[in-house]
């Protein structure tokens, strides 16, 4: 029998109630697939705990182990500092992230206010905060941060994302397409796959920017784009699949498939009034 979505929310609310009693905690929000259409049987709980000082590990362990955990990894720091465990009663996987308030404020300001673009995933934190469900807000700080995220998509950011991600597909000397050719020449399959992943991240970033859609991250990308983006390259999903199928071995046909993929996004840009040969100079 599958878990009901309400079980996820109830567990998140109970954990938020416990963590909210700690002085270091200023806000708690539920994010991830529980706040999007992408929720499925494999979904976990993404719980964002916003702090000014680190909660002692012993206090966090007390919450986790008093409630019960089938398996727990505490104080992980591979990506964000946080704890991850499987709740004993429900079997739900909990991913609790400890985010410094000053850090997330900077991530939002650099994109929403200063319009700074990245190579891939520029607007992911903006998407996270904008779509999160607030479970606790000690003094209204999270409400203010979320309000900042409700602005329309800035046109300067749109252009800068395209300028940062389109030329690197195949236009500039160190473009992904050129690096993939070198990797094929060297028969370096690991490098091929690494560069193809980077190429796809920038390819999708351009599509999001064209449509003024925030980047949701790495889960169910193609269905998300088809659901939320009105303007997409013709045959996008099929062409992405053809590219991926050519990465399983050293196959120089991959280069032709990449050209077809990028040709599609070039046409998309042309239709939006951008010169695909001049995107490096967009301001």
Question: Explain this structure to me?
Answer:
The protein folds into two domains: about 5-150, Beta Polymerase, domain 2; about 155-280, Four Helix Bundle (Hemerythrin (Met), subunit A), CATH 1.20.120. Helix content is about 50%, strand content about 15%. It has twelve helices and six strands. The protein has helices spanning about 5-20, 55-65, 100-115, 125-130, 140-150, 155-165, 165-170, 175-185, 190-210, 220-230, 235-245, 255-270; strands spanning about 25-30, 45-50, 70-75, 80-85, 95-100, 135. Strand 4 and strand 5 (about 95-100) form a beta hairpin. The longest helix has 23 residues, at about 190-210. It is globular. About 35% of the residues are buried. The model has no long low-confidence stretch (mean pLDDT about 95).
Q: How helical, in percent, are the residues?
A: 40-55%
| Strand order within the widest beta sheet | 3-4-5-2-1-6
Average pLDDT over all residues: 95
Structural class: alpha+beta
Compact description:
49% of the residues lie in helices and 14% in strands.
Compile the SSE list and pairings.
Blueprint: H1 5-19, E1 25-31, E2 45-51, H2 57-67, E3 69-76, E4 82-87, E5 93-100, H3 101-113, H4 124-131, E6 133-137, H5 141-148, H6 155-165, H7 167-170, H8 176-185, H9 189-211, H10 221-228, H11 236-245, H12 253-271
Parallel strand pairs: 2-5
Antiparallel strand pairs: 1-2, 1-6, 3-4, 4-5
Defining traits:
283 residues; alpha+beta; Beta Polymerase, domain 2; Four Helix Bundle (Hemerythrin (Met), subunit A); 2 domains
